[in-house]
């Protein structure tokens, strides 16, 4: 019976030694390259291993999240974004986009909020973002109530 035991010989290569009843000489094909490039740096966040950044206690919005929803309401347009805690925008949708704007009668009415929520939910699903922090004031009498948070 033989067992494969990894042994670190230097910082760049990992050699596997096969121990059996008879020791034989190793061949050069037993070298494994240890230079691994992580192509998904946010994998630890998805596995819930990475700690959430705490920020400072004096920060008003706080930073106890990985992804945060930003709903920017302008005079004529609505923009919805998912912002990572590093400050980069992961997913965005806006009524300024021609592909969304051409199907809307107005870019800031109730139907615009509902349709923007559907498009934004589809883009979040395609990007693999299933959870995010929502800090939007839902005051009665505002159009923000029409933004379907249940769809997302």
Secondary structure elements and pairings:
Elements: E1 3-8, E2 13-19, E3 31-33, H1 43-46, E4 67-73, E5 78-84, E6 89-94, H2 98-101, H3 110-127, E7 133-134
Parallel strand pairs: 4-7
Antiparallel strand pairs: 1-2, 2-3, 4-5, 5-6
Keywords: Mitochondrion, Ribonucleoprotein, Ribosomal protein
GO molecular function: 5S rRNA binding; structural constituent of ribosome
GO biological process, one term: translation
Short description:
The protein contains 3 helices and 7 strands. It has 152 residues and is α+β, with helices and mostly antiparallel strands. Strand 4 and strand 5 form a beta hairpin.
Report the structural category: alpha+beta
Provide the domain count. Answer: 2
**Main beta-sheet annotation:** 4 strands, mixed
User: Which CATH top level class of the largest domain fits?
Assistant: Alpha Beta
Beta fraction of the residues? 25-35%
* CATH level-3 fold name of the largest domain: Nucleotidyltransferase, domain 5
The ordered H/E elements are EEEHEEEHHE
Give the terminus-to-terminus CA distance.
55 Å
Q: Count of helices?
A: 3
| CATH architecture verdict of the largest domain | 2-Layer Sandwich
**Rounded Rg:** 25 Å
Tell me, what's the shape? elongated
DSSP strand count? 7
CATH H-level name of the largest domain... which superfamily? Ribosomal protein S11/S14
Order of strands, main sheet, comes to 6-5-4-7
Keywords: Mitochondrion, Ribonucleoprotein, Ribosomal protein
Protein name: 39S ribosomal protein L18, mitochondrial
GO molecular function, one term: 5S rRNA binding
Main location: mitochondrion
């Amino acid at each position: 019976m033989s067992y494969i035991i990894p042994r670190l010989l230097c910082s760049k290569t990992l050699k596997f030694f096969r121990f059996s009843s008879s020791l034989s000489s190793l061949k050069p094909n037993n070298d494994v390259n240890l230079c691994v490039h992580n192509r998904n740096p946010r994998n630890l966040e998805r596995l819930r291993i990475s700690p959430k950044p705490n920020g400072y206690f004096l920060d008003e919005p706080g930073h106890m999240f990985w992804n945060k929803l930003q709903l920017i309401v302008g005079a004529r347009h609505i923009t919805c974004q998912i912002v990572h805690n590093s400050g980069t925008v992961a997913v965005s949708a806006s009524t300024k986009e021609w592909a969304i704007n051409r199907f809307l009668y107005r870019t800031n009415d109730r139907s615009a909020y509902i349709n923007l929520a559907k498009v934004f939910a589809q883009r979040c699903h395609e990007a693999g973002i299933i959870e995010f922090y929502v800090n939007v004031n839902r005051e009665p009498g505002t159009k923000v109530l029409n933004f379907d948070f249940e769809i997302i």
